[in-house]
From TrEMBL:
Name of protein: Uncharacterized protein
Pfam name, any one: adh_short_C2
Coiled coil: none
Superkingdom of origin: Eukaryota
Matching InterPro entries: NAD(P)-bd_dom_sf, SDR_fam
Record organism: Microthlaspi erraticum
Length: 262
């Protein structure tokens, strides 16, 4: 998939691009000809990713997606450097610090999750879409949702705030797609099953191998372990012209999990 240069000459912003799915997307998108701007708060890690890929291909900007001023500045800096934005991959996300029953829900933590996973995505969609409309760019916006945007009820394995944020994000994707279509801008989601990313490992306080074993035991599709690269490849499809008439869609990368689970 990475040999087709499917984003040749495209300018891409990836939020949460310092690690996990975002970092894999940065690598894959540049392999496909894109110039990438990583927007993240993990400065050292993000800068190291940029250096490892090549600073002629990747730039790193510190950006807390909860701060609309920082979001607006990241968009402005990208446009000043590259002239336009063709693709937004809104991937930044967090889990609850403490997972547990709805009866003990920590609303401060809930607000933090919603601020990153939903409000942060909304801020980037707002400012990137403004830029696309002003420049006449027929762009693509892709957001990382989750199987938790389709199903719920797993309690501690899929925390309540995270589930709520991803359901809301899917609604935002559909709403934005409905408005932005008249400008030729597509908005889609990519919905992965569980992956052993640093965020998930930290959230579950387990090492990557054990996380993969756990999710594989729960998976519908056997014989393959879901990796960040698989999700990045789905995001590449939605970012590229291969999906030129796809908008308002939430592409499941879940091995059929949400189809067969109640």
């Amino acid at each position: 998939m990475s040999s087709g240069r499917r984003l040749e000459g495209k300018i891409v912003i990836i939020t949460g691009g310092a690690s996990g799915i975002g970092a894999e997307a940065a690598r894959l998108f540049t392999e496909n000809g894109a110039r990438v701007v990583i927007a993240d708060v993990q400065d050292e890690i993000g800068q190291n990713v940029a250096v490892s890929i090549g600073e002629d291909k990747v730039s790193y900007y510190h950006c807390d997606v909860r701060d609309e001023t920082e979001v607006e500045n990241a968009v402005k800096l990208t446009v000043e450097k590259h002239g336009r934005i063709d693709v937004l991959f809104s991937n930044a996300g967090v889990l609850e610090k403490q997972q547990g029953s709805i009866l003990d829900l920590d609303l401060h933590d809930f607000d933090r999750v919603m601020a990153v996973n939903l409000r942060g995505a909304a801020a980037f969609i707002k400012h990137v879409a403004r830029s696309m409309v002003e420049s006449g760019t027929r762009g693509s916006i892709v957001c990382t949702t989750s199987v938790a945007a389709k199903i719920a009820g797993t309690g501690t394995t899929t925390p309540h705030g995270y589930t709520a944020s991803k359901h809301a994000l899917l609604g935002l994707i559909k709403s934005a797609a409905g408005e932005l279509g008249k400008h030729g801008i597509r908005v889609n989601g990519v919905a992965p099953f569980g992956i052993a990313t640093p965020m998930v490992c930290d959230g579950f306080r387990m090492e990557a191998g054990k996380i993969e074993q756990f999710f594989s035991s729960q998976a519908n599709l056997k014989g393959i372990v879901l990796k960040a690269r698989h999700v990045a490849e789905a995001a590449l499809f939605l970012a590229s012209d291969d999906s030129a008439y796809v908008s308002g869609h939430n592409l499941a990368v879940d091995g059929g999990y949400t189809v067969v689970k109640p």
